[in-house]
Amino acid sequence: MIEILSIILSILLLLAAVQDLRERRISNHLVALIALVALLRATVGGNAMQPEHWLALLALFAASLVLFAFGAFGGGDAKLIPALALALPLSSWPLFLLVMAVSGGLLALAMLVRARFGAHPPSARTASLPYGVAIAIGGWAALWHPSSALAALATPSPWAG
Q1: 96, 85 in Cβ contact below 8 A?
Q2: Least reliable range by pLDDT among 3-12, 40-49, 136-145
Q3: In whole angstroms, how far apart are CA 145 and each of 22, 52, 79, 128, 148?
Q4: FRET partner for 113 with CA separation of 20 to 30 A, picked from 21, 69, 107, 150?
C-alpha cells in the first residue's frame, strides 16, 4: 500500500511541478490532494500518530510561512512543502530538504544562465523561480530512497490488527 501511495504522490508532484513551470503557481486543490494522499501514506506507515512528527510538521509549516512572508517563495510552495513532508518519516526529512535546496539552487543557476545568454530576455512571469520543481525533486528523492521506504514499512501502523 505504501508503494501505491508513493506512486500516486509522485504523479501528483509531477503535476505540481508542471503547473508551477507553466503558470508559476500551484493550485490549492492540488496541494490539498497531495496532503490527503500524504496523510494516508503517513497513516499506513505509522507516522501520522507520532506527536513528534506533528510538532516537526508544525515547525516546518511555520518556517514555510515565514519564508513566504519574506517573499522567498510563493504561497503554493509554502503549503506544498509541509503537505509533502507529512508523508515522510522524520528520518527522511534531511534528505528531502537537502535535495530540495540543492535542486532549487541548480534551478536558479540555470535560470540565471538562461537569462544572461538566452535569445529572449525573461518576462516578469518567467523570471520567477518555479520552486515547485525543486520541491518535487526533493520529494521524489525522499519517497523513493531505500531508507525512506524501509522506515515507512518498518514502523508499525496503529491501524494494523
Answers
A1: yes
A2: 40-49
A3: 28, 22, 23, 30, 5
A4: 69
The answer to whether the CB of 42 falls within 8 A of the CB of 86 is: yes
Show the cell assigned to 148: 525512506
- Would you state the pLDDT for residue 114? 83
Contact present, 59 and 97 (Cβ < 8 Å)? no
**Maximum Cα–Cα distance across the chain:** 61
For the entire predicted model, the pTM comes to 0.84
Cα–Cα–Cα angle for 131, 133, 136, rounded to 5 degrees: 115
- How far are the Cα atoms of 58, 62, 99, 126, 132 from residue 19, in angstroms, in the given order? 26, 24, 20, 13, 8
pLDDT, tens digit, 9 for 90 and up, residues 51-103:
888 899 999 999 999 999 998 889 999 999 999 999 998 889 999 999 999 99
